[in-house]
């Protein structure tokens, strides 16, 4: 078994070496697409097409998510291994291939760009997947390889949905890949709080029936929508109260002293209008990491 394992590893490494130029070109393709969360249409389609050509059975739009996918290849009965690709870019990080800050040609600095970069995280796991498939075929190793496309990682996106829909149920192991820049920790797994439990929640504020606000304040006014009349505060006010309160209290929270992190993002606020009408809806997303699940849930 040891000799077979070593031989299979060599075969997999040889496949990677032989396809180095392809892997580099694939990464550049995803990097230049730079599609943001939940809108990675071309990136997901590229993965689906390539995996299909390599003999995988691929479900596009898995779990009802248009930019997700689930692929599977089997070489007979045996253990099942799952890995995954991330490919979402981050708005405001558009960068050309230059040593100074400069957006890619034809785009603004506010356009999406890859930060971690997820472009190479996905291609790296894809390389491992296809190299493993080749080694299993060459050495007649039985088992099943599964591979999922995970959009919107930066928004705590598809992995939760895939998990709840059972896509991770029938696997013996899940292999993740995320290198670290700081030697010697780049090949280290910190089992206690490596990344921690990752939770997220979106809060929505709705200003319903704003026309009834202080309706009796000027009952004789011939212009009920007068610009000088009092108006409903609107959803933005409620959102800002929550945002400000959480920011003011953050120094007293565990994120400032422990293995926590708390992040927020305003997803929409009044649909980007500054009219005299109150904002009808506003949403803010909070994401937090904690050392364990129990802490995350409380």
From TrEMBL:
One of its GO terms (biological process) is folic acid catabolic process. One of its GO terms (molecular function) is dipeptidase activity. One of its GO terms (cellular component) is cytoplasm. It comes from the Bacteria. It comes from Candidatus Nesterenkonia stercoripullorum. This is Amidohydrolase. InterPro entries: Peptidase_M20/M20A_hydrolases (IPR052030).
